[in-house]
Amino acid sequence: MDEQTPDARDELAADIDRVCRLEGEFVVRSGAVVPEYFDKYLFESDPVLLRRVAEAMVRLVHADTDLLGGLELGGVPIATMMSSLTGLPALFVRKAPKAYGTRRLAERADVAGRRITLVEDIVTTGGAARDATVALREQSATVEVVVCTIDRSEPGANRLHELGLETRSVLTRADLDRAREAARS
Questions:
Q1: Is 180 known to sit in a ligand binding site?
Q2: 123 labeled binding residue
Q3: Quick one: pLDDT band at residue 2, thresholds 50, 70, 90?
Q4: For a pLDDT cut of 70, what percent of the chain falls above it?
Q5: Is the pLDDT of residue 55 over 90?
Q6: Structural domain tally of the chain?
Q7: How far apart are CA 33 and CA 31, in angstroms?
Q8: Is 142 a known ligand-binding residue?
Q9: Which of 19, 97, 118, 156 would bridge 105 by S-S if both were Cys, CB 3.0 to 4.6 A apart?
Q10: Is position 1 within any domain?
């Protein structure tokens, strides 16, 4: 597992922040109106930036991983790019099994006995990764690691360790804030 150099990490943080941090008036999930919004889909839909993110995330994946489990919705394009870079099959993990067709929670072959690294765009509390881990483990998959682009959790908010999950991130909210400050100076 190669580590990303500090300069490369800082450059990636600056580019993601420049592209994704929007200023204006935005209504957030809680209903509050805020002057700034981070639109993660802007890096996920940019093929050059998405590839750079995926290349950095590939470095965080255990060598014994069988499947890359992209969490719906933001983890799917990242897992797809990581799959292309590594040759590891991608697994698309829904928030709930679909009610028709195959009625699967995870789109791909059987996960029983397979070691899955979950792929998430942003971890705040870890809720989606927690739910996916529980569901995949019920199907006899081994899930021990979540890799994410950005860990923006507040101290103590990410409780994935309670499930024995390790969270590995390329960037943190602090990295993006430092990039923003550096751009302003």
A1: no
A2: yes
A3: low
A4: 98
A5: yes
A6: 1
A7: 7
A8: no
A9: 97
A10: no
- 133 and 154 in contact (C-beta within 8 Å)? no
The CATH number of whichever domain residue 98 belongs to comes to: 3.40.50.2020
152 in a known ligand binding site: yes
* 120 marked among binding-site residues: yes
User: Does 40 carry a binding-site annotation?
Assistant: no
Q: Is 126 annotated in some ligand binding site?
A: yes
* Dist. CA 172–CA 133, nearest whole Å: 22
Own/partner pairs, 158-162, CB within 8 angstroms, 24+ separation: 158/123, 158/124, 158/125, 158/126, 159/125, 159/126, 159/130, 160/123, 160/126, 160/129, 160/130, 160/133
Domain extent for 168? 6-184
Residues pairing with 71 in the sheet: 93
| Per-residue pLDDT at 108 | 79
Is 54 contained in some domain? yes
Identify whether 25 is part of a domain: yes
* Residue indicated by tokens 């070691």: 115
Does 122 carry a binding-site annotation?
yes
**pLDDT digit string, tens, across residues 122-167:** 998 899 999 999 999 999 999 999 999 999 988 888 889 999 999 9
Report if residue 154 sits inside a domain.
Answer: yes
